[in-house]
Specification:
mainly alpha; 11 helices; binds protoporphyrin IX containing FE
Length: 208
């Protein structure tokens, strides 16, 4: 028991489960508002995108801090994004479309924001399926190439959000801005900027 409490990964897993717990508590106490389906769809969509951005922030944070151990959390964050994407999709298929394959297929083709969201979800599946260490070893270099799809998935996620919002684009644009920043840290000048910031930081904080 104590070993679990001293494990940062267990704390992170608990933290990642909080949005689901919130939905369960609100659901049980009539707190999901006038349109519970919309509430659940929006909440799970928001946490999918937030999870993707958190997953993408691990590498720049590792470069900035020099802490290689941060990579341990990347897989868990990625899998939680997939978990919330699954809930988001199931909410849509079950509560919004009542498991009607014809209506779902029509919607995916007709409404561009659904097409984009669905594409992002489908692309997430191979990433989740190959997230184990065994798959990492088996695929070798191809694993990294495959997992670069996460950049496209996050871009599709932001596009999906921008497309579905009707009036105020502020929040999706903030997500887009954060994503642009995270992608910029992968470019050569971004990597150099992180290295420079780390050198400054190392000078300010003497190593023990
Ligand atoms: C990686 C995949 C996806 C991401 C990141 C994502 C993200 C989001 C976000 C951020 C929202 C808006 C939340 C808000 O208004 O606060 C949203 C809403 C929504 N998404 Fe997704 N989504 C994804 C996949 C899907 C899929 C596969 C479907 C269905 C096929 C879907 C259907 C919807 C619907 C119906 C809404 C609500 C639209 C409305 O309020 O009018 N999404 N999604």
């Amino acid at each position: 028991m104590w070993a679990v409490l001293r494990n940062p990964k267990a704390w992170l897993a608990l933290l990642c489960l909080l949005p689901l717990l919130r939905l369960i508590v609100l659901g049980a106490t009539d707190g999901l508002g006038a349109n519970p389906i919309e509430f659940i769809t929006r909440s799970t969509g928001t946490w999918t995108l937030t999870g993707l951005l958190l997953t993408l922030s691990v590498t720049p944070l590792r470069r900035l801090s020099g802490r290689a151990d941060l990579l341990r959390y990347r897989r868990m964050l990625g899998l939680f994004s997939f978990f919330y994407a699954g809930l988001h999709f199931v909410t849509y298929v079950w509560l919004d479309q009542f498991f009607d394959p014809a209506a779902i297929a029509k919607d995916i083709v007709k409404r561009p924001f659904i097409t984009v969201g669905f594409t992002a979800f489908v692309l997430l599946i191979p990433l989740a399926a190959t997230s184990t260490h065994a798959m990492m070893r088996r695929l070798g270099r191809r694993w990294q190439q495959l997992h670069r799809l996460v950049y496209l998935i996050a871009l599709l996620g932001v596009t999906h959000y921008l497309w579905l919002v009707k009036k105020d684009l502020t929040v999706p644009l903030i997500y887009g801005g954060v994503l642009a920043l995270l992608l910029a840290t992968r470019l050569p000048w971004g990597v150099n900027a992180l290295k420079a910031a780390r050198t400054v930081r190392a000078g300010l904080i003497p190593r023990e």
